[in-house]
Amino acid sequence: MFVAVYWWRVHPGKEDQFRAAWRRGTDLIREKYGSLGSRLHRDADGRFVGYAEWPDEATWRAAFDQKMVYDDPATRAAFTDAIAEVPADADPIFTMTVTDDLLVRSVASAED
């Protein structure tokens, strides 16, 4: 398994818009590019951090090289409209191969 970690700062008041677009975009990326899904976190300073899982680096690289474009302009527009800041190079902050996975998978709601 391979993971990529990204972060975004969101305009105040657009957090729900961002989260909804992130969820929809994650579903579309999973369907089109074969990701295993993603988790969205919020750190203490308000920045959102996404952890995306992929079956392998080659699958992620193919999607990344295509800029993970999907056919839903409204979702993409809502996502980009909510973003106030991304890393300067807009690349993931980490890309890593999983060596040991002890994460317990839950069926918790995506809204939790």
TrEMBL record:
Keywords for the protein's UniProt record, in alphabetical order: Monooxygenase, Oxidoreductase
InterPro entries in alphabetical order: ABM_dom, Dimeric_a/b-barrel
GO molecular function: monooxygenase activity
Pfam families named among the record's database cross-references: ABM (PF03992)
Record domain ABM: where: 1-64
UniProt-recorded name of the protein: Antibiotic biosynthesis monooxygenase
